Amino acid sequence: MPLVVIRPRSRWVPINLRGMWEHRELLYFLTWRDVKIRYKQTVLGIAWVVLQPLLTMTVFSIFFGLLARVPSDNVPYPLFAFCGLLPWQLFSRALTDASMSLVEHERVITKIYFPRLLVPISAVLASLVDFGVAFVLMIGMLFLYHVRLTAAAFTLPLFLLLAVVTASGIAFWLSALAVQYRDVRYVLGFLTQIWLFATPVAYPSSLVPARWRPYYGLNPLAGVVEGFRWALLGKGQPPGPMLWVSVGVVVFIFIGGLLYFRRMESTFADVI
Question: Is the pLDDT of residue 175 over 80?
Fold first, then answer.
């Protein structure tokens, strides 16, 4: 009889593509489950996806656009703010849900085996559903303000991908940390509040001196938000050094998050 030796994969191998492909149906069910649970037993249901950025845009328009007179690069401020809120809402929702996803799926993780990486990834994919609904409202606002899409709109999927990869990379770090340290839940809310005002959502990055903009790109969401505005509104110059700095930071965070997640994966079932 042939001898078959089963060994665990190296914990430094960042991703088990074969295992994830074999469990691809599980990824679909986890994603769909997150979408259904999010709006279960709510009065307005998925309408919250539109109301949240719409109300935030209204507050920003009153305090930043009307009272503080924050410049908006010759774009109506409500449109300027909502265009920045789209990627930000996607990022913050994906980060919040994915970071605590392992803890919330405690019963499944302790009973059966499957690639644990599917859990935070499913939470990020579920946030894309919310983004799609809010994006319909964005298209309506473009028609309302008579803004025509340009050839730059074809680059929008690239900036969307950058936002998803950013949220995923950070979520890999935080979800693995949350298994051992439940403080992550409380730190995350504080972190996203500060991160919002460190990102050019309510103001343009042109307020930052030109010599400091590449360093401003160390905030990966800076390049994403400015890229969204350039792609949808067709205003300003194409993203330059700031975007490339953001891309470099995102790649570092994503690969580091995969390695750390893989390193800690074997302890999840025991610690959680």
Answer: yes
Stated pTM of the model: 0.86
Q: Are 268 and 183 in contact (CB under 8 A)?
A: no
- Is residue 12 included in any domain, yes or no? no
- Look at residue 97 and tell me if it is in a domain: yes
What is d(CA 55, CA 59) in angstroms, rounded to the nearest whole number? 6
CA dihedral 225, 226, 227, 231 (to 10 degrees): 110
Q: If we measure between CA atoms, which residue out of 156, 151, 168 comes closest to residue 224? A: 156
Query: Who contacts 182 (Cβ-Cβ below 8 Å, separation ≥6)?
Result: 103
Q: Which residues contact 164 (CB under 8 A, 6 or more apart)?
A: 90, 94, 124, 128
Task: Indicate whether 27 pLDDT > 90.
Answer: no
pLDDT confidence tier of residue 16, bands split at 50, 70 and 90: low
**What is the count of structural domains for the chain?**
1
Q: Check whether 96 has a pLDDT greater than 70.
A: yes
- Domain contains 1: no
Q: Where are the alpha helices (DSSP H) in the chain?
A: 17-22, 24-38, 48-60, 77-99, 101-104, 106-111, 118-144, 156-180, 184-197, 213-216, 220-233, 241-264, 268-271
Q: Give 44's contacts (C-beta < 8 A, 6+ positions apart).
A: 51
Residue 182 DSSP SS3 = coil
* Domain span holding position 47: 17-271
